[in-house]
Write a structure and sequence with these properties.
By secondary structure, this protein is α+β, with helices and mostly antiparallel strands. Helix content is about 60%, strand content about 15%. It has two domains: about 5-45 and about 155-250, no CATH class; about 55-150, no CATH class. It has helices at about 5-10, 15-20, 25-65, 140-150, 150-190, 195-205, 210-220, 225-245, 250-260, and strands at about 70, 75, 80-85, 90, 105-110, 115-120, 125-130, 135-140. The strands form two sheets. Strands 3-4-5-6-7 form a five-stranded mixed sheet, with helices on one face. It has a three-stranded antiparallel sheet with strand order 2-1-8. The chain is elongated. It comes from Mangrovibacillus cuniculi.
């Protein structure tokens, strides 16, 4: 069975998830890499679009400021000001007062010591310290730097995405390993003996449904607070594992003994 076919089956069929325990371990590992690649795509695309937009908007905004933007020793020395360009609100504001900006625009807030990026729902996306710029710098220097280093930004972004993907995959392997032991316990409670190598495969394919649902909820901005969200995700993960384990046949001698009783 191909990796894509197994992936599609793991989205809706608990019986197939149970059957996948017999697949080679390489298939399970490939499935995990594929799952993490798919679920990483929205974040990669969103970050790429935002980075591209910012690289175009920031130089325009700096040119539109009536006063020269100056950073000395990591501190902003400019008066309060705001401009709106191409769906972005870019504002010099020491107090980071989001209530004054339009609710449907993305925001770049320049506080005393940092740059704060927010999405259209005032959700923090990233914060950068002026110290990263080093020493003293002006708005014109920032504009010139952004124009000259566009190609470098995309290379750095590619490296960042690669590290992000590998890190998320590493965390997924840890999660699957932990839940593999839980899968063996669920098998014991349900009168089924599941070796760890089979439990690992079941836990791997059971991760598909909760991970995809969480990705969809995140894209639709339906994600609850972190602790509740994790509880829902792990609870759903356990439910999928349990339903998949329950599709496995019980040992025949157990069934015979139960029939005699």
């Amino acid at each position: 069975m191909s990796v894509w076919k197994a992936f599609s089956k793991s989205i809706y069929s608990f019986k197939h998830i149970g059957m996948f325990r017999m697949l080679p371990i390489g298939k399970a590992i490939s499935h995990l890499f594929l799952l993490l690649f798919i679920t990483s795509l929205p974040a990669i695309i969103y970050t790429s679009m935002m980075t591209s937009s910012l690289s175009e908007v920031v130089p325009k905004a700096l040119n539109d400021f009536s006063n020269e933007l100056v950073i000395k020793n990591g501190q902003l020395e400019s008066t309060k000001e705001k401009v709106e360009i191409d769906g972005w609100t870019i504002k010099v504001d020491p107090l980071v007062e989001l209530e004054e900006t339009s609710s449907d625009s993305r925001k770049l807030i320049l506080s005393n010591d940092s740059v704060h990026i927010f999405d259209g729902n005032n959700k923090p996306v990233q914060t950068f310290s002026y110290q990263l710029l080093g020493g003293n710098v002006t708005g014109d220097q920032i504009s010139q730097y952004l124009e000259s280093e566009k190609a470098t930004f995309w290379i750095m972004l590619g490296i960042f995405f690669s590290i992000y993907y590998l890190f998320m995959t590493f965390l997924a392997f840890i999660k699957v390993t932990i839940f593999s032991w839980i899968t063996t316990l669920i098998g014991t409670f349900s009168k089924r003996t599941i070796p760890f190598r089979f439990a690992f495969r079941i836990a791997t394919y059971s991760l598909t449904i909760p991970t995809l649902l969480y990705m969809i909820f995140d894209m639709l901005q339906w994600v609850p607070p972190s602790i509740i969200g994790l509880a829902i995700q792990y609870g759903l993960y356990l439910l999928v594992i349990t339903l998949s384990v329950n599709t496995l046949p019980k040992p025949k001698h157990k069934q015979t003994k139960a029939a005699l009783n």
